[in-house]
């Protein structure tokens, strides 16, 4: 889901089918709001697809996308990005986190964050991006989101926060993804009680019990 704060969103999410049964997915949050943010988001979307289709590894993909944004956007424009590739044969998730909120992995062995060091893309042309991997067991759930969800309500009293988000997802982890999404949005709206002050994006990924598939 993506709930824009303005008529045009600066958040971005994507899911791409790759060769060999692999799946790539990404969530990004570009600086600013409205039309300028949407233009940068469109630039990021086009660049990401070109690099994915060219077969670049996650680390090189982020490095090239970073250099592209540094070259063709204003110095104060940047984007946070989480990019991951799922290998169905190995059940392995390979990912890069470029300054984005840390995705939550909810699994049979407990919950943890998919954290890697990395600056947002578009700030410094020579930034390096750390690549990490993890194996997903059947039923493991990964929640990617923008900070518009966890910071909802910050201007009124207290932000919704990571702990409340984790509690909602953990409580409903075995339900269909669409229902988990609904529960998260309902909880956030109930907490903040206002129109969203920032774009809110949530992308849920669950490893299935069927070998080689994730939905």
Task: Please describe what this structure looks like.
By secondary structure, this protein is of the alpha+beta class. The chain has one domain: 4-Layer Sandwich (Phosphatase 2c, domain 1), CATH 3.60.40.10. It has 5 helices and 10 strands, in the order βββααββββββαααβ.
Give the C-level CATH assignment: Alpha Beta
Total strand count, please?
Answer: 10
| Major sheet details | 5 strands, antiparallel
The average pLDDT value, as a whole number, equals 88
Secondary-structure-based class equals alpha+beta
Please state the overall shape, judged from the principal axes of the Cα atoms: globular
Multimeric state = single chain
Strand order of the largest sheet: 1-10-9-6-7
Flag low-confidence runs.
none
Number of alpha- plus pi-helical segments: 5
- State which percent range the strand residues make up: 25-35%
Helix content: 25-40%
- What's the gyration radius in Å? 17 Å
Keywords:
five-stranded antiparallel beta sheet; 27% strand; 215 residues; alpha+beta; globular; Phosphatase 2c, domain 1; 31% helix
């Amino acid at each position: 889901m993506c709930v824009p704060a303005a008529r045009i969103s600066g958040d971005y999410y994507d899911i791409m089918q790759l060769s060999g049964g692999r799946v790539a997915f990404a969530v990004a949050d570009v600086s600013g709001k409205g039309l300028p943010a949407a233009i940068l988001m469109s630039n990021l979307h086009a660049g990401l697809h070109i690099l994915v289709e060219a077969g670049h590894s996650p680390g090189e993909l982020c490095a090239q996308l970073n250099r592209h944004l540094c070259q063709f956007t204003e110095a104060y424009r940047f984007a946070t990005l989480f990019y991951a590739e799922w290998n169905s044969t190995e059940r392995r998730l390979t990912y890069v986190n470029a300054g984005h909120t840390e995705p939550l992995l909810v699994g049979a062995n407990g919950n943890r964050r998919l954290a890697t060091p990395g600056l947002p893309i578009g700030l410094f042309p020579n930034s390096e991006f750390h690549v990490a991997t993890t194996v997903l067991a059947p039923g493991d759930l990964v929640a990617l989101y923008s900070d518009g969800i966890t910071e909802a309500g910050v201007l009124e009293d207290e932000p919704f926060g990571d702990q409340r988000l984790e509690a909602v997802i953990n409580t409903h982890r075995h339900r269909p993804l669409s229902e988990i999404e609904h529960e998260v949005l309902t909880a956030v709206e109930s907490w903040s009680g206002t129109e969203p002050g920032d774009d809110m994006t949530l992308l849920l990924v669950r490893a299935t019990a069927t070998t080689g598939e994730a939905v």
